[in-house]
UniProtKB/TrEMBL annotation:
Residue ranges of domain HTH araC/xylS-type in the record: 192-290
InterPro entries documented for this protein: AraC-bd (IPR003313), Homeodomain-like_sf (IPR009057), HTH-like (IPR037923), HTH_AraC (IPR018060), RmlC-like_jellyroll (IPR014710), Tscrpt_reg_AraC-type_HTH (IPR020449)
An example molecular function term from Gene Ontology annotations: sequence-specific DNA binding
Entry keyword set: DNA-binding, Transcription, Transcription regulation
Protein name listed in UniProt: Transcriptional regulator, AraC family
Upper taxonomic lineage: Bacteria, Pseudomonadati, Bacteroidota, Chitinophagia, Chitinophagales
Keyword Transcription: yes
Protein source organism: Chitinophaga jiangningensis
């Protein structure tokens, strides 16, 4: 029997008893878990969600990929991603929830934070193993943010924005090997633009040549570029996004599989089932039954 739909939480429902905090929530992990013991798992958010583990074990699933929980890990999740955690014993660390528009009043470039690879929306890229030095720096930032929330001083929201940007930059530095060359900046920009286009058009456009035209490159170049940057072709990037959306839609027990096939622009249910079984390893029905 299919399970219930995955709920979506907005930031206002997880405010830790501080109703004035509509754009950002900062908390210690045990307190966050205690305050929201009724959160359903798995679930998704309409905001950015960060979790730093300083102790504990278990597993954390993001968009149906499972990762082992261990100290020194920092998880970044973007709005819409499905996730759930399954802990073994007690865990400690920190949690930040931040609205998608939190930085809009502060940054001239609305796409600035998308430059950080851990905010790409790709599950594996959102899991960062911090070095001992980076962990100390990040922990210090979390503690400063907690103090800022507790004291409620003038300009505290701006200070929280500054601390959050420092967090992103320090994590970005810790994961970036060597100096950033101009060609690396170009490659990162092209990759980010390709992924953004896929996110916007994957329902209708399934061929690399469609995206290559919008990026003003050849299909061969785009495929070679993706192979170099990601270890997969442009076609696989598009296919993986379609497959992820199929999995997200299959969570909804009230939507039949034929309707999902139609929504994803497949010619018929049979073609969708063949596609899903080929790349997910199970049929849509089997996947739906095994969702936990």
């Amino acid at each position: 029997m299919a399970k219930a739909n995955i709920p979506t939480y907005d930031i206002c429902s997880l405010v830790m008893g501080k109703p004035t905090q509509e754009d950002v929530v900062v908390a210690r992990f045990p307190e966050y878990l205690a305050a929201h013991s009724d959160i359903h798992f798995p679930h998704r958010h309409s905001f950015y969600h960060l979790a730093l583990f300083t102790s504990g074990s278990g597993t954390h699933t993001i968009d149906f990929e499972r990762f082992p929980v261990k100290p020194g890990q920092l998880y970044f999740m973007v709005p819409g991603q499905v996730h759930g955690w399954y802990f073994e014993g007690k865990v400690d660390g920190y949690v930040i929830n931040v609205s998608a528009g939190f930085f809009n009043v502060f940054l001239k470039d609305a796409d600035y934070i998308e430059r950080f690879p851990f905010l790409s929306g790709v599950a594996a890229e959102g899991v960062v193993e911090l070095t001992a030095t980076a962990l100390r720096e990040v922990t210090r930032i979390f503690e400063e943010m907690l103090q800022e929330v507790a004291t409620n001083q003038p300009f505290n929201m701006d200070m929280l924005r500054l601390l959050m940007l420092e967090l992103f930059i320090r994590v970005g530095r810790s994961t970036q090997q060597g100096a950033i060359r101009q060609d690396m900046l170009h490659n990162n920009l092209l990759l980010r633009n390709f992924r953004k286009l896929v996110e916007q058009h994957y329902m209708q456009l399934r061929l690399p040549k469609d995206y290559a035209a919008m990026l003003y490159v050849t299909p061969n170049y785009l495929n070679a570029f993706c192979q170099h940057m990601l270890g997969k072709s442009a076609g696989e990037v598009i296919r993986d996004r379609v497959l992820l959306e199929a999995k997200r839609l299959l969570v909804n027990a009230d939507t039949n599989i034929s309707a999902i096939a139609y929504q994803l622009n497949f010619a018929d249910n049979s073609y969708f089932t063949k596609f899903f079984r080929k790349y997910a390893g199970v049929t849509p029905e089997e996947f739906r039954k095994n969702i936990v």
